[in-house]
Amino acid sequence: MISRNGLTPLCIVQNDFMSQIIQTTESMLIMTNEQLQSMMISAAKQAVTEYVKRTSKPDDKELWTAKQVGEYLSVTERTILDSWSYKSWFPKSSVLGDGTNAPRRWFAKDVRAFAKNRQS
User: What letter does residue 85 receive in the DSSP assignment?
Assistant: First the structure.
C-alpha cells in the first residue's frame, strides 16, 4: 500500500519519528547552549570576583617591586634600583631578607605620594 509521496506507511512513520527526534534534539541543543552560556557567565563573574579579592590589598599595605614603581613613574627598573632608591628624596624601600641581592619593595602609597608631590 502506497500513500503520501509514494511512501509506504512504515516509511511515513519512520520519517515522522525522525522529524520529531531532530526537532527534540535541536530544542535540547538550544536549551543546553543557553544554559552553558549562563553557566560560563556565572563562572567568569565568580572568577573575577575571586581574583579581585585575592589581589586587592589595603592601599597602606600594598608593596610594589622596582619594576612596578618604575612603570608607575615612567622610568626604568634600573633607574629605580641603581639610582633613585639611594636618594634621600625618594621613598624608602623595605628589604625582604638578608644580603645584597635581597628583593626590595616600596609601599604603593609612598610612591603615589612621591609622584603627586613631584607633579606639584
Answer: G
Threshold 0.85, pTM exceeds: no
Q: What are phi and psi of 64, to 5 degrees?
A: -115, 150
pLDDT tens for the chain, 120 residues long, are 455 555 555 555 566 667 777 776 666 666 677 777 887 888 888 888 777 777 666 667 889 999 999 999 999 999 999 999 999 999 999 988 888 788 999 999 999 999 999 886
Q: Is the dihedral of CA 94, 83, 120, 56 positive or negative?
A: negative
Tell how strand 94-95 and strand 104-107 pair up.
antiparallel
DSSP string over 17-79: HHHHHHHHHHHHHHHHHHHHHHHHHHHHHHHHHHHHHHH---TTT-EE-HHHHHHHHTS-HHH
